[in-house]
Amino acid sequence: MVEVVGIRFKKAGKIYYFDPGEWPVEKNGYAIVETARGVEYGQVVIGRKQVTENDVVFPLKKVIRLATTEDSEQVSANKKMAAEAMQVCQEKIVQHQLEMKLIDVEYTFDRNKIIFYFTAEGRVDFRELVKDLAFVFRTRIELRQIGVRDEAKMLGGIGPCGRILCCSTFLGDFEPVSIKMAKDQNLSLNPVKISGLCGRLMCCLKYENDNYESAKESLPDMGQLVVTPLGNGRVVGLNILERLVQVDVPDQGKALEFTLEEITEMEKVN
Predict the structure, then answer these.
(1) pLDDT tens column, 185-207
(2) Pair 140, 130: CB distance under 8 Å
(3) What are φ and ψ of residue 94, in 5° steps?
(4) Which neighbouring-strand residues pair with 39?
(5) Phi, psi of 93 (to 5 degrees)
(6) Which of 20, 62, 95, 147 is most buried, with most CB under 10 Å away?
């Protein structure tokens, strides 16, 4: 077992494990840590805990120290500088007539690098743009192309449900979402109704998918013949959440709902 703390660098960003060492690191506090891209300032979202070695990527980096008020002020100053850098970069993009959309700009905590996030339809030759930006800011420049889901996560917005986007509030990682999940939940397959602001399938389709899959295993298939208290019939609908089966019983002239206990499977119809 390894003792770690979980630190996040962005709102709804991925959580990374670090070795707290002897520092009195507490949940909701802030710490300075060393990352692959340099020294960073992050919030402790998971207090000290023991995890297995399989949950940790070695070598495990250590917490350098606890964050101070001066560190917080530097982060605020970095955000102001990033806003100015974004305006400069947008002007340079226009000058170079590049087909790219600048989404966000971020300074690393130690200001050793500026990261420009952008979207584009395809590959973009931004070598001259990097040279211009390096000349203006006199520091390392990184241009990082992101996808539409990452764009929605950074920009935020209101989803079809009327709530702030999940990706920009609490989802640390994107999980695969398939059209099969929508089918299993008996949702409309109209892309407009099951897509988020990013144009991809909504992340929330994943939330209840496991419950729907386990429920479907106990229910008969569509078109299957079953025996009901009112006679033989064919399954024409499923209410998965309430675990009810809609059966077309010819003698009744309409489809009726039955519980699993009230029906007996006869045979599966190919």
Answers:
(1) 888 899 989 999 999 999 999 98
(2) no
(3) -65, -45
(4) 34
(5) -60, -40
(6) 20
Query: What are the pLDDT digits (tens) for 78-117?
Result: 999 999 999 999 999 999 999 999 999 999 999 999 999 9
Tell me how far apart the alpha carbons of residues 153 and 173 are, in angstroms, rounded to a whole number: 10
Helix 69-95 to helix 127-137 angle (10° resolution) is 140
What is the strand order of the sheet 225-228 is part of? 254-259, 244-249, 231-239, 225-228, 264-267
Q: How far apart are alpha carbons 30 and 42 in whole angstroms?
A: 6
Task: Check if the beta carbon of residue 115 is closer than 8 Å to that of residue 106.
Answer: yes
The span from the CA of 99 to the CA of 72, in Å, is 36
- Helix (H) or strand (E) run with residue 82 in it: helix 69-95
CA dist 246 and 57 (Å) reads 50
The pair of structure tokens assigned to 154 is 């950074």
Letter for the amino acid at 203? C
Cα dihedral angle (72, 78, 79, 80), rounded to 10 degrees?
Answer: 110
SS3 209: helix
What are φ and ψ of residue 142, in 5° steps? -130, 125
The answer to pTM > 0.90 is: no
Calpha distance 159→239 (Å, rounded): 26
Cβ atoms within 10 Å, residue 237: 13
The whole-angstrom separation of Cα 159 and Cα 164 is 6
Between the two ends of the chain, the Cα-to-Cα distance in Å is: 52
Evaluate whether 181 touches 209 at the Cβ level (below 8 Å).
Answer: yes
Rg, Å, the chain Cα set? 27
Amino acid at 55: D
Q: Which of 24, 41, 23 is nearest to 32 (CA)?
A: 41
